[in-house]
Amino acid sequence: MSYPTPSLASLQSTLLHSFHLPVRPTFLRSLLTALQNTSRPPHGAALLQTLKFRILSSDITQSLEPRSNLCLPSISSETKSITLGFDGIIVQALDIKDLTQSLGDTMEAIEMGERGEKMKGREVVRITAEEAEAEQGTQAGSGVGSAATADRKNGVHKLLLQDSAGTRVWGLEVKTVEKLGGINIGGKLLLRGCTVARGVVLLTPETVTVLGGREEAMSKSWKEERKEVLRGEIEALRGGR
């Protein structure tokens, strides 16, 4: 049995008003074409959820329209204090750091994952290749090691954020935001009414919603470069002593 496909305009409107996703018509059309060529194309609510998932897994500079009211304003270190709009700004995480973890501890945790090891209490245990991949993703993605994974929600996170126009800004978690510590690289956030102070977006539970998602190319590149970035930061600190 075949089902009628909603119009492009109808789907755009629903994705915007239900999920705050101002998807580009060309990107949406390509998604629909790909889905319609599958053996069992989704329809109805399943179609919307599939589209949402695909968009949250995309690079928003390619998938979302850079509408001025749904993008970050011009922000610099000279920006003392402004409030972002309440229409809802979608951003993606390009980098994340747990400020409560030392650089050395983060490096050690990543290297343990590479060796197929993790901490279980005070004991070092061996893990499978699949578990090692998951551990390295956690360690890289949140900036914390497996010994602290259970407590990472209590960390203070700093994220490099990017909107659909390509504008980048740092965000700082000033109150614990649910799921923020476990966000993937390329994961999406919805910002509404955030305060910007001295060029940094202040993240609180009242102004931030973690939508999730993961952009594979971004995540892979970030993990591959993360160790060298950490090594450079550690050397810079040693050289400054």
TrEMBL record:
Domain RMI1 N-terminal residues, every copy: 18-63
Superkingdom of origin: Eukaryota
Domain RecQ mediated genome instability protein 1 OB-fold: 80-226
A Gene Ontology cellular-component term: nuclear body
A Pfam family reported for this protein in Swiss-Prot or TrEMBL: RMI1_N_C
Example GO BP: double-strand break repair via homologous recombination
PANTHER family in the record: RECQ-MEDIATED GENOME INSTABILITY PROTEIN 1 (PTHR14790:SF15), RECQ-MEDIATED GENOME INSTABILITY PROTEIN 1 RMI1 (PTHR14790)
Family indicated by similarity: Belongs to the RMI1 family.
Protein name: RecQ-mediated genome instability protein 1
